[in-house]
Amino acid sequence: MAALTGLNSKAEVARSHTAMAVNINAARALQDILKTNLGPKGTMKMLVSGAGDIKITKDGNVLLHEMQIQSPTASLIARASTAQNDITGDGTTSTVLLIGELLKQAQLIIQEGLHPRVITEGFDLAQAKAFEVLDQMKLDIPINRDTLIQVARTSLSTKVYNELASLLTDVCVDSVLTIKKDNEPLNLHMVEIMEMQHKTHKDTKLIKGLVLDHGARHPDMPKVVKNAYILAVNVSMEYEKTEVNAGFFYKTAEEREKLVQAEREFIENRVRKVIELKKQVCGNDKEKGFVLINQQGIDPMSLDLLAKEGIMALRRAKRRNMERLGLATGSVALNSVDNLTPDVLGYAGLVYEHVLGENKYTFVEELKNPKSVTILIKGPNKHTITQIKDAIHDGLRAVKNAIDDGCVVAGAGAFEIAAHYALMEYEKEVKGRAVFGVRAFAEALLIVVKTLAVNSGLDPQDTLVKLREQYHRLRPQPVGLNLNTGEPCDPVADGILDNYCVHRQLISACTVIATNLLLVDEIMFAGVQQKK
Amino acid sequence: MVKGEVITLQLGSFSNFVASHLWNLQSQCFYYSKDAPFGHEFDHDVYYREGRSFLNKTTFTPRTVLIDLKGSVRNCSWPVDQAYDGPNDDEQKVWDGQVQIHKAEPQAASSKSEELGEVDVRPKKAPLQKNSWAGYLQNKYHPKSVTINNDFDSDNPQQPFGVFNQGETLWRLESENFEDRVRWFAEDCDHLSAFNIMMDTSNGFSGFASSCLDYLDDQFRAKSRVVWSLSDVPANDSAANYRALNTVLAYQKMQELADVVLPLSVSADGLRRHLRSSSLVALDPSPFTGGAALAMHVDSILSSLKLKSEGGCDFVNFLRLMTIPDRKFVVSSMAASPLSKDGRLEDLSPKCDSSKMATSAYAVSRGTETSHAIIVRISNTSAASTFHTMVRHPTKFCQDYFPEISSQSMRSVKGSQLVDGLFVVKNSADVVAHFDDLRRRRVNLGKMHRISLPEGDVTEAIQNVASLRENYLK
Ligand SMILES: Nc1ncnc2c1ncn2[C@@H]1O[C@H](COP(=O)(O)OP(=O)(O)OP(=O)(O)O)[C@@H](O)[C@H]1O
Ligand SMILES: [Mg+2]
């Protein structure tokens, strides 16, 4: 590859420069749009369509998904950033900023005649060093509830106002701590997120149990069941017109009638087995109740039979709720109602229905040791609910990341300041022209701190000077930016904690993409030359 | 007799274009007063559900779930009934920092009177916007009906959504959400009987729809599945081989999991751009216009399956009449002037020309009664194997949808734009021409870089089309 570079004619280099300029411009245009989003003092974006429809978000990831991006470069960056979000749940905005800044810094040196390949070599060296710094910055504090609260609050307060952030922080941390099992990987799917229209979002809360988005479909069924046995099955309890699928025709009307009758009895039998089990466990005890939750359908005739026995029955439950019910109530999901025994039943102290407009909800609560819970998001409209939902996703991921990482790092720009410092030291050891790449990388990292400062109405250069001086004095103790005062702060003391994996992924994704964008022309030219 | 409820699925952009026309046609037959001009012959609850919005308004919306991609709504207003959204006041803002507003260019140019500062008090007729299915949909959808995916662009020449795998990826991204919506509508039914599936067969949505059929089979095994296999008109012919492959792959799934498949296309073969050489040639190739023509057929067949009268068919009976084991693909044709000349039947299925004798036929005459003998003759079947039903309410022909049709032929349209018509579905060997056309396309996986499927799967799907064809020649 290096040899080929030498063969490039002047014209080709010029063409490659213009192509790279296009790339860099696209990256910076994207950066311009997203930079005001960053941090707890960032700007909320309201997107108004031609017809007046509104989308509101402060989340870089959501914004990138809403934008119609035509430039291939911009869409490459956007995809890298949303991938960052898929992997870690955070850091989308920073990814866009950092890629843009790496390219901008690179451009400055390329204009002075340095070849992109040399810069990317420097990037590789700098990346390795940055990883080292990050590993040294892992904080030596236990990952307990307090720490998790701080991580979650740091993340959430970049998405919603403070009071709401506090509310959601508790909700996120407590839901994860409830479902967490020792020595087992955390499965966030066991936190169900349910939306409910309601006049105020301030009633968003954690339910230590399940909320299903449907109710009993029979007027005579109980609306509240106490001391409830829960039976979870995946068995059709509706009469099916199977003849179509079987593809056969009846010879006579009587024959048809007979088959219909047989099918009906077949279904009724299944229902009777459920009723038998209910009688067996509840007897004549009026204090005990019975709830059937079926993944398949239950037709009105079957509902009738169940209602007569005082059974509350729900049909067409979500597939995943079968698993959640097991974890929440201890029930065993069954694919058949043959040989029913009491030990497949779960238990809930309270099951009740809540009706709201055309929507019914069933709450399954008062559980012994629920390993599946529900976050009930309330809000008056689509925008509010969606924004809270996105924020909760971020909060849950932050908590999970901290647990999976087993550590956290200081936020508020502390990592960027420390890595910048280390790279400037490291620069002295780097031989050859790669040193320019290392320096460009170090400069680029500062974009996060600068943007946090600008978004808080602070002067970016003054701020940087203060932070770097402070870090020089206190290192290796982390130094971050207090966005309210503009002064250096101790992020750990202030409880501003970031996820380790987010920073790590950020560094590696940005290095890869920036490198690709810088080299894409060279690779293309190499291809052309090979053809000759 | 209680008719079972039907859930409609709209899987793909073109399907959504057709469906907007379909729901417009369906709702023109709603009469809220006691005396309706053609009587109350329909049980609308088959395809629609009554609901109650957050603002406590009674709603009546299609029982449907749709999928489309980012940008498909263009700058039309959001196609969901706003009565389901609560107030959006300052009290409920979740951010107390700065807010930045980004406005897209407004669509409509200001009218003269607005410029002059005059206030127009008459309700303004919204201009018909034909570049999106949301632009002409008259009654908006239930919020649970609409999913717009944000990972793929609907109209990005750089990254067309044109390959089966992309559709499979889309299913992976959206399945949890999509399944949840289908489940919600199903839970709401007392006698769910069938799924009415409208799908894009020749573009990337074929992969989505195939995965969706798997899901339906898994969760709703005993429910019937009617598939309208719709081909849009491509922007150019460069992707014809991809379109053929998408179709072939989707057909394999349909043969396995659908009860009946009705392929419909505006272009002659469903793969390339050129239109039919019949009078439908008067259409322009836009999804709006093509969709309007196909929707007339879909609407009439569906309408005939929701008749209250005893003689009418329901979904399940329709399947029993139409399908013969291993012969699930049936062809369609319609006669509705001025879209077809002299009451001749226009073929709507790709490559099919009504030349072969049909083994069974289902015919719907709308507006006026047509004698059984005539129907049997023009649809080329035998009297005994033809089922014929009458829908009294005529269908509607919207003149402004078809500017290309000469004013000469427009004379047959009455003032109210109501027209009579005949709509036929047949099980016949005509469809073999379509299968043969698909098999003729050379599928060279080595050259089709955008597709990434195991070679074995592709070969198997191609062999499946070959065996489909044999079933009709036996
Ligand atoms: N209270 C705070 N003071 C200073 N800096 C903060 C504070 N809270 C968060 N930050 C910093 O803000 C940055 C994160 O901002 P933000 O969450 O808006 O963007 P992102 O994570 O890059 O992208 P996104 O969350 O949109 O995917 C991190 O660098 C974090 O350390
Ligand atoms: Mg963040």
Task: Explain what this protein looks like in three dimensions.
- The complex is a heterodimer of chains A (532) and B (474).
- Chain A has helices at 2-7, 10-35, 60-66, 72-88, 92-110, 116-136, 145-156, 162-179, 242-246, 253-282, 300-308, 319-329, 382-405, 414-426, 434-445, 447-455, 460-474, 500-531, and strands at 44-48, 54-57, 191-197, 205-207, 210-212, 224-233, 289-294, 312-314, 346-356, 359-365, 373-379, 408-410, 480-481, 488-489, 497-499.
- In chain A, the strands form five sheets. Chain A has a six-stranded mixed sheet with strand order 5-10-9-6-7-8, with helices on both faces.
- Chain A is an alpha+beta fold.
- Chain A is built from 18 helices and 15 strands.
- Chain B is α/β, with parallel strands linked by helices and 474 residues long.
- Chain B has a single domain, classed as Tubulin/FtsZ, GTPase domain (Rossmann fold), CATH 3.40.50.1440.
- Helices cover 30% and strands 20% of the residues of chain B.
- Chain B has eleven helices and 16 strands.
- A six-stranded parallel sheet of chain B has the order 6-4-1-7-8-9, sandwiched between helices.
- In chain B, helix 5 (240-257) links the parallel strand 8 and strand 9.
- The model of chain B is unreliable at 106-124 (pLDDT under 50).
- The chains are: A alpha+beta (532), B alpha/beta (474).
- At the A-B interface, strand 1, helix 9 and helix 13 of A face strand 5, strand 6, helix 3 and helix 7 of B.
- Strand 1 of chain A pairs parallel with strand 5 of chain B, so a sheet runs across the interface.
- The complex binds adenosine-5'-triphosphate and magnesium ion (MG).
- Adenosine-5'-triphosphate (ATP) binds next to helix 3, helix 5 and helix 16 of chain A.
Oligomer: heterodimer
Question: What is the CATH C level class of the domain at 2-125 and 416-449 and 500-525 in chain A, in words?
Answer: Mainly Alpha
Tell how many strands the DSSP assignment of chain A holds: 15
In this entry the ligands are: adenosine-5'-triphosphate, magnesium ion
Strand order of the largest sheet of chain B: 6-4-1-7-8-9
Poorly predicted runs of 5 or more residues of chain B? 106-124
- For the residues shown, what is the average pLDDT of chain A? 87
CATH topology of chain B: Rossmann fold
What is the beta-strand fraction of chain B? Answer: 15-25%
Query: What's the CATH topology label of the domain at 2-125 and 416-449 and 500-525 in chain A?
Result: GROEL, domain 1
Spatial separation of the terminal alpha carbons of chain A: 16 Å
Helix content bin of chain A = 40-55%
Protein name (chain A): T-complex protein 1 subunit zeta
Subcellular location (chain A): Cytoplasm
Organism (chain A): Galendromus occidentalis (western predatory mite)
GO cellular component, one term (chain A): cytoplasm
